[in-house]
Design goal:
319 residues; alpha/beta; Multidrug-efflux Transporter Regulator, Chain: A, Domain 2; Methyltransferase, Methionine Synthase (B12-binding Domains), Chain A, domain 1; Rossmann fold; five-stranded parallel beta sheet; two-stranded antiparallel ribbon; 53% helix; DNA-binding transcription factor activity
Length: 319
């Protein structure tokens, strides 16, 4: 029988929320709606989360970061056994299979960088409707941490938090819209700065980023573009809802090294269009990401995270 962790081995709701970069009410709502309960209670009946609980939440956010809906991500991680270090470890992460892991792109990030805004602070700025400061803090996070780490550790938790707040209350749509616009503005600003700093080779073949015709959610493409700009890769972003004929025509004209197609849901993941696109010449690497493709069996070229997408596209661009 497993020992019940003591208070010194566990974290409070507010402490876990700070580690994850979400609001404490969001954490409580995940328990109520998805069954993600803490492993222990204090003598006074307060929630206490173990290192394993913390690892489970990190795994859930990693899935959400890859585009998996929150409810599905919660269902995936809920009953798995996670191993983790002491809750005093500030950078604990784990993958969706229950084993400790850290994204290799994040692992390469330089150490001892100054800490940028805590995700919980971003959530508070969004709720204060301080769009100017929120955009500034997002841009600062991207500059200090890099696109992959900032997206995973700060921006996705922010977007999850404001989205969950809306689902929980039916209110605060304006907060969600403001946060989304701030993320968009921050990513675009960071991309421009990265292009100026790293000066992509204008003679190299670019990477094309797009969504198929039914996909309206193109925000992840901006994160990919920002990360590629940091690596000195030229990018052409076509954005959301691109008809397959138009996308194929663009590929023939641009002659890219790779094409990345994002899909947030099965209804936007058109396999027939993907197969048609794959036949477009000249040849290039076709990379797909998002839960839409995952639900359809993970076709060739599927990647499960922002870091994996960036690595696949950088490899193709430098081939």
């Amino acid at each position: 029988m497993n020992d019940v962790p003591t208070d010194s081995e566990t974290l409070t709701v507010s402490a876990v929320a700070r580690r994850l970069g979400i609001a404490a009410p969001t954490l409580r709502s995940w328990e109520r709606r998805y069954g993600l309960s803490p492993s222990a209670r204090s003598a006074g009946g307060h929630r206490r989360y173990s290192p394993q609980d913390l690892a489970r939440f990190h795994a859930m956010l990693k899935l959400v970061n890859s585009g998996v809906p929150t409810a599905e991500a919660a269902s995936t991680v809920r009953d798995r056994i996670y191993t983790a270090r002491s809750p005093n470890v500030t950078s604990a992460t784990s993958d969706a299979e229950g084993t400790p892991a850290q994204d290799h792109a994040v692992r390469r990030a330089p150490r001892n960088r100054p800490r940028s805004a805590d995700p919980a602070d971003l959530f508070q700025l969004a709720n204060a409707m301080d769009g100017e400061r929120l955009t500034h803090e997002i841009a600062r996070s991207l500059d200090r941490s890099g696109a992959v780490e900032a997206w995973t550790s700060r921006l996705v938790p922010l977007l999850v938090g404001v989205g969950d707040q809306w689902e929980r209350t039916g209110e605060c749509v304006e907060v969600e819209h403001l946060a989304t616009e701030a993320v968009v503005s921050g990513l675009r600003y960071h991309t421009r700065r990265a292009v100026e700093r790293h000066k992509p080779d204008e003679t190299g073949r670019p990477v094309v980023l797009a969504c198929l015709e039914l996909e309206d959610h193109a925000l992840p493409l901006l994160a990919v573009a920002a990360a590629l700009a940091e690596r000195g890769v030229r990018v052409q972003t076509l954005g959301a809802a691109t008809p397959i004929n138009s996308l194929s025509a663009a590929v023939r004209r641009i002659r890219p090294a790779a094409v990345f197609i994002w899909s947030s849901a099965p209804r936007t993941a058109d396999v027939e269009s993907l197969q048609s696109l794959a036949r477009t010449r000249p040849s290039y690497s076709l990379v797909v990401g998002g839960p839409g493709w995952q639900a359809l069996g993970r076709p060739d070229g599927w990647v499960g995270s922002l870091a994996d997408a960036v690595e696949a596209l950088v490899t193709a661009a430098h081939r």
